[in-house]
Amino acid sequence: KVNSLFSVYMSELGCAGQIVLRKGDVPDRSTQPTQEDNNIFQFDQWGVEIQVKFREKAKMSVLSAQRHSGGERSVSTIMYLMALQELMVSPFRCVDEINQGLDERNERLVFKRIVANSTKPPKRDSLTNHSGQYFLITPKLLPNLVDMEEEAVTVHVITNGPYTFENPLDWNIDNFVSIAESEAPEESNVNDENSPVVANNNVEPRSERSTASKKKRRMS
Predict the structure, then answer these.
(1) How far apart are the C-alpha atoms of 110 and 141, rounded to whole Å?
(2) Does the pTM exceed 0.85?
């Protein structure tokens, strides 16, 4: 099942991949394999081999740092983990900066796969057959990610720095919209020196904010 899912996920990226179980060599080649060596339940003698192909005319090869780029290894590892997680039940999963090292195209496709896997509804025949919660921690996201519109996706933006609000209640969207509308140029009415200035109690005017920012930068 992991191999089937991995192949599907890689094909969505325009690539190919498969998961193969590979048995290690007999430690001493001078001796014939014993019955114990041929036992398929000797798990320490078996390993998982990830084979991928990123170009149409290329052959399937084992994923390695010597042959593949950092982005190719990242996307292959992510797709393998996503396929592997389909066999495991967990109340929540957390990944940190999983999109680092990916180009824009692959990052969008990886994010789409994460949303699809983490928002699947549970099956009615089992209380444990669910995708759980998925936490994706990242310092940045690409703009215009259409998968963010999924109803089950929630975005938490954490800000920090010298210019953040001391009181979270000062975050007033209506004030921001009114400032943006007042500063936007109008086709029929060009602002001049006699134009009224829109005052706002919670947010400083643009000129004062820029002056304060310059003062803070000079002081630092």
Answers:
(1) 12
(2) no
Tokens of 69: 């780029």
Question: How many secondary structure helices (H) and strands (E) does the chain include?
Answer: 5, 5
The pairing of strands 16-23 and 92-96 is unpaired
Nearest to 17 by CA among 108, 100, 84, 101: 84
Q: Say how far apart CA 38 and CA 216 lie, in whole Å.
A: 72
pLDDT digits (tens, 9 = 90+) for 196-205: 444 444 445 4
Q: Which two tokens stand for residue 149?
A: 């519109």
**3-state SS string over the chain?**
CHHHHHHHHHHHCCCEEEEEEEECCCCCCCCCCCCCCCCCCCHHHEEEEEEEECCCCCCCEECCCCCCCHHHHHHHHHHHHHHHHCCCCCCEEEEECCCCCCCHHHHHHHHHHHHHHHCCCCCCCCCCCCCCEEEEECCCCCCCCHHHHCCCCCCCCCCCCCCCCCCHHHCCHHHHHHHHHHHCCCCCCCCCCCCCCCCCCCCCCHHHHHHHHHHHHHHC
